[in-house]
Amino acid sequence: MSVDLFEPFQLGDLTLSNRMVMAPMTRNRADEHNAVTPLTVTYYQQRATAGLIITEATQVSPAGVGYPATPGIHSETQVTAWRKVTDAVHALGGRIFLQLWYTGRISHPSLLPDNATPVSASAIRPDGQAVTYSGMQDYVTPRALNIEEIPHIVAQFKHGATQAKRAGFDGVEVHAGNGYLIDQFLRDGSNHRSDAYGGNLPNRMRLLNEVLDAICEVWPAQRVGVRFSPENKFNSMSDSDPQAHFGYFTAQLSTRKLAYLHVLEGDMQGKTSAMNYRELRIKFAGPYMANNGYDRVRAETALRGNAADLIAIGVPFLANPDLVRRYKEDLPLNTADQASFYGGNEHGYTDYPFYKKETEVA
Ligand SMILES: Cc1cc2nc3c(=O)[nH]c(=O)nc-3n(C[C@H](O)[C@H](O)[C@H](O)COP(=O)(O)O)c2cc1C
Fold first, then answer.
1. Which residue puts its alpha carbon closest to atom 10 of ligand 1?
2. Whose CA is nearest to atom 28 of ligand 1?
3. Fewer CB within 10 Å: N-end or C-end of the chain?
């Protein structure tokens, strides 16, 4: 089957105008209430021609925060602020899912209520430093969650999903990648538990399954996506056999009739990969969304080779609000400014220019 990047895609009951998805990207520009601002409304609206936008990771609870100035979805103020984003994107015919986030050990007491110790699957300190309001600080050794606390984590995800519905999102993506709390349970480098949430694969997947069960009480499964990053070393992560382990997790997810499986293929920073992702794609019965270093040519090759149904694109969407048009018409791209990725004002956020041909200049 030969498909085109610019053809519509049927995602459950939603029709996407094309197969280009804006990948989730944290931009650290939320206000003092961890609410998105009018600038964020502009940022997402500028990118509404993506077939689907997946928002920046958004904490489901004050206890799930891991960085300065990231948005939440737990308070009414945050819901009201996000509603302006979803309305603006919908007004242009776009679709938008909220990425639900709980950072776990990738946090710091100074960011958490009552200076709490961050929680994780196990008390294993990640290498590296947390970004805090007073600069970079070494990660601390997290506290392993007690088994009795896990229902509360699940309830926080469910609350976030409920709030996302009230904020007008088309669906939610569970962030089960990049070394955050759910991923800390999935991968064996960070999960050394010996109870029902550690050890074998069903146990390591239990938290994700419980989160999905709870969210699917609020949303139909066809509006719920999951993100994995089996090989990503980011945030001090490792797994002894990602091919086998994520093959199992994927096969389990396959029975749920989810909106999609979103996979960050390979390592985010090195852009290297040792895994066979086609095996995951085959194991998953629903739509497979590929990500990591896809440009137009690679995206089209993947779609035509049936290696993916949707392509999520990060940095090029950050720097090119009209990326769909630029890819379609083979126009040159803006260069991304790394210095303004995380935090700041409109510079590097809403001021990337739309393409103008000489003939288009008024
Ligand atoms: C500035 C920035 C912020 C990111 N924030 C998130 C995030 O909030 N959630 C997430 O799952 N991935 C996040 N990522 C990873 C991207 O979604 C994506 O996987 C990565 O950029 C690779 O895709 P690309 O090569 O198309 O850019 C972020 C990446 C960048 C560059």
1. 24
2. 25
3. C
Q: Is the CB of 227 under 6 A from ligand 1?
A: yes
Among 102, 139, 180, 349, which one carries the catalytic annotation? 180
- To the query of whether residue 180 is one of the catalytic residues in this protein, the response is yes
Q: What is the pLDDT along the chain (362 residues), one digit of tens a residue?
A: 558 999 999 999 999 999 999 999 999 999 999 999 999 999 999 999 999 999 999 999 999 999 999 999 999 999 999 999 999 999 999 999 999 999 999 999 999 999 999 999 999 999 999 999 999 999 999 999 999 999 999 999 999 999 999 999 999 999 999 999 999 999 999 999 999 999 999 999 999 999 999 999 999 999 999 999 999 999 999 999 999 999 999 999 999 999 999 999 999 998 889 999 999 999 999 999 999 999 999 999 999 999 999 999 999 999 999 999 999 999 999 999 999 999 999 999 999 999 998 777 55
> Which residue's alpha carbon is at the smallest distance from atom 23 of ligand 1?
292
Question: For residues 179 and 237, what is the distance between their CA atoms, to the nearest angstrom?
Answer: 6
What pTM did the predictor assign?
Answer: 0.98
- Quick check: CB of 58 below 6 Å from ligand 1? no
Domains with residue ranges and CATH for the chain: 9-360 (3.20.20.70)
Residue 23: which of 193, 258, 230, 265 has the closest Cα? Answer: 265
Which of 20, 21, 25 maximizes ligand 1 atoms within 8 Å of its Cβ, making it the mutation to test the pocket?
25
Is residue 22 in contact with ligand 1, taking CB distance under 6 Å? no
- Of all protein residues, the one whose alpha carbon is nearest to atom 22 of ligand 1 is 292
Q: Which residue has the tokens 């990500």?
A: 291
